[in-house]
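thread: overnight batch results

M.L. [08:02]
morning all. the overnight job finished for the chain we discussed friday. pasting input first so we're all looking at the same thing
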Amino acid sequence: MKFLILGAGYAGLTVAHKLRRFVRDDITVISQSRLIRENTIFPLLLTDEIKVEETEFDAKEAMNMKNVSFEEAEVKEILPESREVETSKGKFDYDYLFLAMGGGYDENFRKIKGYENAVMHHTLEGFLKLKEQLWKTDGDVFVGNVKGSPIEGPSYQIALIAEYIMRRRGVKAKVYLATQSPKGVFGPIPIDWVHEKANSYFERRGITILKGRTVKEVKRGKVVLDDDREVEAEVISILPKLSAPEVVKRSGITLNSDFVDVKLPSFRAQERIFGLGDLAFTPFPRTARAAMISAENAVSTLIKELKGIELPMYSLGVLCIMEGGDDAGILRFDTDGKNTFSTLNFNKNYVLIKKMYSRLLVKRAFDVPYHGALAVRPQV
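M.L. [08:03]
and the structure it wrote out:
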């Protein structure tokens, strides 16, 4: 039996590690690069608390140690009917396919009108460019998302760190944070005290929250919001609307949405195909934790079918550690359908926890099976 994994990020490598614990069959990972970075820690690049090399590991080397094949190649076409994937290194067939290629961040960022006047706080290139700008500018800073962007946690962190850098440099500049929800920071969380406490904290830090606003267009030195209001800023950092990569959409697996339609909590898209992480359609934010949980659930589903072994299935929820310069915070929101757990606290020590966990992720090539999630019962 052949298991094919497209992508070597949080979801893809989690699949490979967990599959190998239960099967001895052929497992192949295909990725454009063997150099993988743990990007949830990228905000700390802005304050020199970490170095780029501390975020990197060699995925091919890690997979070879597990007797998992690793191919450094570009995916050209996905052909579900023939169970094949065409790549820059030829065709690969499969019995089960795991789509874990992440979201189309770069291609969607370039669709934003005036994108060249902004940076994107997702890629390493974007963070390094943002760092250079923040330590040089004497002007205002704008941070926000395009309408439909499924994750705002990184934007919260950038706003906090930008405020810290401006304060540390003695620059009297405004920091604007636009949130898609009219309730403000963590607005989508269905608990009033969470966003009320979060908004209060951000406002005490001197950040101007533009509630219920998204980016429509970027011009030189200003942002046009969805209500046509213009906000002047010298540094503009935004996240685009997300979707599955174009090569995935061409395969027909995405049906009528921009994402791969999956059943939860199994993340099964078709009988022999699973859609994981950022490219899967879910009601939850796209985070590294959610990507790893999607991989855990997909493999648990398959191992039960193939081996009859019952493994835990987890809820997605939200776990966000916010780095904020000289402070930090943590939000947890999890539910198993009956019980709900929520936490929001601010304390500098949370950055230390985040740095320790990031080092573990890098050292183990994302082989960290416990994600602090609640167990759920699979849907029949």
